[in-house]
Amino acid sequence: MSSVRPPRKFNPHPFAYHQEIELEIATLTNMGQGLGRVEGWVVMVPYALPGEQIRARIYRNDKNFSEGDLVEVLRSSPDRVPAPCPLFGTCGGCQYQNLTYSAQLDWKRRQVEELLRHMAKVEFTVSPVITSPREYGYRSKITPHFEPDRSGVVQEIGFLRAGRRKEIVDVPQCLIATEAINAVLERERSAIRKKSWKRGATLLLRDTGAEVATDPAAPALTTVAGLTFEFLAGDFFQNNPFNLESFARYAVEQARSGGARHLVDAYCGSGLFSLFGAREFETVAGVEISGSAVERARGNAARNGLTNCAFIAGTAGDIFSSIATAAADTAVLIDPPRRGSDEDFLRQLIAFGPRSVVYVSCNPATQMRDLRPLLDAGYTLRAVQPFDLFPQTKHLECVATLER
């Protein structure tokens, strides 16, 4: 039993603060934590793997589960491997460097099936995860943080410490970032430490293939499958360029496979799916509530000589009012932010009644939650295809296809 004083709001039941317990890990949660039970009580432990017998040190008791730090692996999983990054387990950026890549893919697929079962109330066989060509060195954008001390000196430049909300771990190199980013990171870290700072900041490093941009407002150009896209370096754009073509092609092919002749690309951003769809559909309508994103999407269509794309600055309350194509001949592709689609958007989507819906998401938990209203409205789930755009981490992209 530890003599360390617990935090002021620590709940002492069912375990004391820093009490060490032994348990067997049964599964991995979609948040990347090992999960086991002690007399039926759930305990979650980061970096512990399924099948392992471990010793954990409790640091939090919530209403329905406890959380602990991994102290010792008493019996290892055959899928456990040495993590190549010396900061693994300290830096909060990666969760799975200690797990073979094949096992990462298998568990991510299982996690999507679990989320379908619990969030969408559907039993459905999820397709095997489509792999990333690179397991490391794939990430084309990182955003390290730093906070100065009282004298204005910066010591740590990096990412949040695992399990912490404010503490920063110094990260000289990031193994999942591209080589070009790491080369510029070294230079930027040196420049930051030469200055005196009044407050903290976030550093942007975006690898476009031609250069590494550090100004969020700088125009960035990148090419995917012969299509050239311009966007602002600080804007959202997929961060794994090495399987982006197969990912975009698959989503568009799913929209086309249901027989639709027209595509609506909701949350279209700078036009990634719209431009891919222009090759497959008679017309494409990209809808965005961001006027600046619409202008960039229009510019990208013109840059690539695509004349069958129209981009609409829709309002949140009347998103589909400008769509002229018949719903029976139209597929809608949606790619919302991590929080998912709100009820108002789903209501409007269902009222429009497209032939098919292709839902792309970087957060399967909110994606599966949003599938339930579509299923209740008469849509049928036809395919669920995860893509591993984020090896070594808990994250993945998932494409769900529904038809009326």
Which residues sit in consecutive blocks of at least 5 with pLDDT less than 50?
none
Determine the number of helices (DSSP H or I, runs of at least 4 residues): 7
Broad structural category? alpha+beta
Could you name the CATH topology of the domain at 103-134 and 240-403? Rossmann fold
Quick one: CATH superfamily of the domain at 103-134 and 240-403?
Answer: Vaccinia Virus protein VP39
Number of strands: 21
Which architecture of the domain at 103-134 and 240-403 would the CATH scheme give at its second level?
3-Layer(aba) Sandwich
Gross morphology? globular
Question: For the terminal residues, how far apart are their CA atoms?
Answer: 58 Å
Radius of gyration based on Cα positions: 23 Å
As a percent range, the share of helical residues equals: 10-25%
Name the average pLDDT. 95
- CATH hierarchy class name of the domain at 103-134 and 240-403: Alpha Beta
Strand content: 25-35%
Q: What summary fits the major beta sheet? A: 7 strands, mixed
Q: Provide the spatial order of strands within the biggest beta sheet.
A: 17-16-15-18-19-21-20
Taken in chain order, the helices and strands follow as EEEEEHEEEEHEEEEEHEHEHEEHEHEE
